[in-house]
Amino acid sequence: MYKLWMHARANIKKTKSVSATLVVMFLIAALLLNVGLLVAIRYGSFFGQLKEELAPADAYFALPQAVYTQQVQDYISQNEHVKKVQTNEALALGAEITQKGKKRSYTVLLQNMDEKREISKWKYVGEHRPATEMSVYVPDIFKAVGGYQLGDKMTLHYTDQTTGEKRQLTFTVQGYTEDIFFSSTDTGMMGFYLPQETYRQVADILQGPSYRMHLVHTRLDEVKSASAVEAGIRQTLGLDSSSLMAGDSDAMLIALDIELIELSRCMMATMIAAMMVLFALIIVVVCLLVVRFRIVNSIEDDLMKIGSLKAIGYTGRQIRLSLLIQYLLIAGLGSLLGIGASYGLLPSISMIFEQQSGLKWEQGFDVGISASALLVLLAVVVLVVVLATRRVNHLSPIRALRGESTVHKYRHNMLPLERAHGPLSVTLAGKSILQNIKQNIMVVMIMIAVTFAGAYGIIMYYNTAIDTKAFAEVPGMEITNVIAALNAKEDQSSTVAAIKDMEHVRLVQYLDEVKLEVDGTQVSSYVMGDYAGKQTRLVYEGRYPQKDGEIVLAGILADRIGKGVGDLVAVRWGDSEETFRVTGLSNGSSMGGLNTSIRTADMRRLNADFKPQILYIYLDTGTDSASFIERLNDTFDSQTLLSVTNFDKGLAEGMASYQNIVAAMGLAMLIITLAVVTLVLYFMISSSVIRQKRDLGVQKAIGFTTFQLMNQLSLTYVAPVAVGAAAGSLLGALYTNPMMSVAMRGVGIMKAGFLVDPLWVVAFGLGTVVFSYLLSLLTTWRIRKISAYALVTE
Fold first, then answer.
1. In a 10 Å sphere around its CB, with 0-12 CB exposed, 13-18 middle and 19+ buried, how is residue 609 labelled?
2. Tens-place pLDDT, residues 487-508
3. Does domain 482-622 have CATH number 3.90.180.10?
4. pTM for this entry
5. Which of 171, 274, 388, 572 is a plausible cystine mate for 577, CB 3.0–4.6 Å?
6. Can you list the residues of the chain whose pLDDT is less than 70?
7. Domain definitions of the chain by residue range
8. Which H helix or E strand runs over 683?
9. Cα distance between residue 620 and residue 481, in whole Å
């Protein structure tokens, strides 16, 4: 065994550059695989550990003071689905907070940190300081994204709901917190914790019932019962169905369950982890192809050495074992370095995820996952080496000593030079391609794999950094510029007409959201008079409702209730029930994908008192939404216009963290793709220069210039690279959306529709080919230093 070990070490020393290239490739593969597995397995379990530690409610209901009646309290406490109730008071405040020089809008829940809690607890994250006057403890995301440090002043800019005056509250940040429901921008509200004295002081400043909020945390018989409890509360209060999006904060009811919270906070990390594991597997496949290529070539190059070993008594099994030890050492070293480097990379990845989820994930060394990643990589290396070295057993010592790997001593002349036309260097390159068809097939396969991943990265980068329209449609919202909540108690026909006639207004239309029950499942439903005017088309199968009794189901809802296009469903609102025919299936992650779309006329059949209230206002391209809102508020009073939302601003703020994460992932995939192409070409060209030294020496001796030889070798590899890059780019363009549909299916995106710009994909493919050609020339530049005599004799 010791002699075999020495043989393996000698082989590695003999091919240092080749071995180093393989080490780097395995390093990349192990790094991506270990990080992907850690995120996929441990990130979700980290959230589970948080749930065990903080004991969150199964669902919470946020009710304003005006609707938190004794009747509601009795209903909740006596409900058959509710097993435990905890009610906490809070102050709800719509405010703008400056983060790194930019103001961002939040709905802030100011809570008393000294209030006792048995469920839905919170905890400190990292270092914190004792409370002083006007202290505040904020979600950790304000440190990760906003840059707030301990002792910094945080000012909340708000509009007084009674007087309409602009005011502000200034606090001193004394620590960072984590609670399950109110620590991420994706969960709707941000929980700020104040010492009891500070809370009372702020409550005295924020006078009026509109600021008072009651948070009812409930433990249920099952999480799915949350929608039934919510429906009962609405029915008890007699809230109009349009109040889901109403501007009247006194009539708002907010309800979220723990499953939706977990989905929103862990969704992005899960998707990115899946991408990383897939990309890692692609790199592993590339590594294995390169290892096989190297083994096959080393057997060809070292035939006489193998013959000598067999002649002095080494068996085929021992020779194969020495090769196995050689590549296990290389793969093991690269994998161990990659796994070690992955733990250094994890804090940066955690920080990126923290910008979206608000979770401060700190992962230590995980023996199980890292050992599994290492064993998987080593196991596939063993498999490839065993398969690639089978021919060693059948080599005759005599034939091997003659340098004959097979009984066929001569190859067929695939491209006789006397019949060829064109430049001699190009002809020789074509001849080499035809004579090394297996090698070129392998190059094509490698390029298909890496350019597929690169094209995927380019497409995702394009959708998050260049043209974000398709990315903005992922949540399933109608994309507009401004949303106005009108007073439904009055006829607003003249108001709508006046808004439509305002300068820079392109289109206005009602789009409300209501709560319905579809085949026994509580869902949210969009209500619109005529879907022909809908600007964001989300239906991927069938069509939007056009006639009475038609409905569109979100794809994830259709799967849950087992319905498809053409089927009938029972739709209930209160005591009214109607039968609807499904005309289409739509994308969208709103309410976890449990949403529908119906016409206003059908909603009025279910609820005769329904009145459209939410007006979507579409502006001309380039119009500033903030300036338009100012004109809108100056034109109409608060009795007509209950509230106005700057959708453009909210969309930009909501998408920012997702865009940053996906764009960074796409860019990283592109960089890694080019790195892998560099390593593969360097490996193969270096091997070719060594193997073809005699041929190159003869050519140099008869008058070929260094550049001609460089060009000849480069063209030999550029042809299969071009074929592979073209195929990989095409596959990336065709299958990025199907892949994303699988990855995002759990959040309601059943058929992804990301934009695939042909120019970007073609440019990437051409860029890869040009990059490969220039890299090949650079790699073959070493030929200039070698004399014809040395090339022939060494």
1. exposed
2. 888 888 999 999 999 999 999 9
3. no
4. 0.76
5. 572
6. 1, 239-251, 300-303, 394-396, 398-435, 589-592, 690-693, 746-747, 784-794
7. 1-55+262-409, 56-261, 427-473+655-794, 482-622
8. helix 647-691
9. 9
